């Protein structure tokens, strides 16, 4: 469904991404995990055609994101880290505007508006001006705009940012439910988010892929480095794999 190959992004002498490659299969949730500034957002902006890479390729359903960006955008729903909202619009007005921009109209638009209203929990603020919303409701509205056209692929950058614990749980369950029909890539630096919903994990640091696989596969890699702890959660796995890049093979991994 999604294939990223040798993706490189340079800003002058600074390399934001260095030959990054990974795939996301149909109906799979892939979590991009890494510290702040690792390159996660840059990768997502290239996948969603907001940025043109220095080199490398991105294909979504065999559509080349660099050669056919318009066709790729039709397949994608994108929630950037800062939700793209118009503060002077009401929530329903804004989502109708986005739906029409996505070429929805009539009964199809009405059905999708009703669906995102319920799925994203926007009922209490449906007729409120966006500037009046809490950060949590703004985030939900941003998620709704990403879903309004029922895309095959969802790209979510820090999707639970600003939400309270109950709202976070709700968004996690929604992501799981959506994965029954959609391919989802989401980025976060919160380990619990990845642990809760991702089928596969891609760890990025300093613009490079550190490791990728299921949590069990990543655990096996850490075991192969000599770790003997009886229980390895994702936090310990993450630290061990980042440490691997900074130490020589002769030095023991400290977790």
Report on this model:
The protein folds into 2 domains: 2-84 and 147-213, 3-Layer(aba) Sandwich (Rossmann fold); 216-255, no CATH class. Helix content is 38%, strand content 24%. It is built from 9 helices and 10 strands. It has helices at residues 40-47, 69-75, 91-101, 106-119, 135-147, 165-178, 191-197, 215-224, 234-246, and strands at 2-11, 14-24, 29-33, 55-60, 63-64, 76-79, 153-157, 183-188, 200-205, 208-213. The radius of gyration is 19 Å and the shape is globular.
Helices and strands in order, then pairings?
Layout: E1 2-11, E2 14-24, E3 29-33, H1 40-47, E4 55-60, E5 63-64, H2 69-75, E6 76-79, H3 91-101, H4 106-119, H5 135-147, E7 153-157, H6 165-178, E8 183-188, H7 191-197, E9 200-205, E10 208-213, H8 215-224, H9 234-246
Parallel strand pairs: 3-8, 3-9, 6-7, 7-8
Antiparallel strand pairs: 1-2, 1-4, 4-5, 9-10
Helix pairs in contact: 3-4, 8-9
Quick rundown:
Helix content is 38%, strand content 24%. The protein is an alpha/beta fold and 255 residues long. It has two domains: 150 residues, Rossmann fold (3-Layer(aba) Sandwich); 40 residues, no CATH class.
Short descriptors:
single chain; 255 residues; alpha/beta; Rossmann fold; 2 domains; 6-stranded mixed beta sheet; 4-stranded antiparallel beta sheet; 10 strands; globular
CATH fold name of the largest domain: Rossmann fold
Count of distinct strands: 10
The biggest beta sheet is recorded as: 6 strands, mixed
Overall mean pLDDT stands at 90
**What's the assembly state of these chains?**
single chain
CATH superfamily of the largest domain: P-loop containing nucleotide triphosphate hydrolases
CATH class of the largest domain: Alpha Beta
Strand order within the widest sheet? 6-7-8-3-9-10
What is the count of distinct domains? Answer: 2
Order of helices and strands: EEEHEEHEHHHEHEHEEHH
């Amino acid at each position: 469904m999604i294939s990223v190959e040798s993706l490189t992004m340079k800003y002058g002498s600074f390399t934001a991404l260095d030959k990054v490659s990974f795939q996301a299969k149909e109906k799979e949730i892939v979590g991009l995990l890494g510290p702040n500034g690792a390159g996660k957002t840059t990768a997502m902006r290239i996948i969603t055609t907001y940025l043109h890479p220095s080199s490398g390729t991105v294909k979504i359903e065999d559509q080349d994101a660099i050669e056919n960006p318009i066709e790729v955008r039709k397949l994608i729903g994108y929630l950037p880290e800062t939700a793209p909202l118009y503060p002077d619009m009401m929530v329903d007005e804004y989502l109708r505007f986005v739906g029409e921009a996505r070429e929805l109209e009539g009964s199809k638009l009405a059905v999708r508006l009703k669906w995102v209203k319920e799925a994203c929990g926007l009922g209490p603020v449906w007729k409120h001006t966006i500037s009046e919303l809490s950060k949590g409701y703004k985030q939900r509205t941003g998620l709704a705009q990403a879903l309004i056209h029922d895309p095959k692929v969802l790209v979510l950058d820090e999707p639970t940012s600003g939400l309270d614990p109950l709202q976070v749980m709700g968004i996690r369950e929604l992501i799981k439910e959506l994965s029954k029909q959609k391919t989802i890539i989401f980025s976060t630096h919160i380990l619990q988010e990845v642990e809760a919903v991702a089928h596969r994990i891609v760890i990025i640091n300093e613009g490079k892929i550190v490791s990728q696989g299921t949590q069990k596969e990543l655990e096996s890699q850490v075991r192969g480095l000599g770790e003997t702890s009886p229980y390895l959660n994702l936090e310990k796995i993450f630290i061990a794999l980042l440490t691997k890049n900074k130490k020589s093979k002769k030095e023991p991994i400290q977790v």
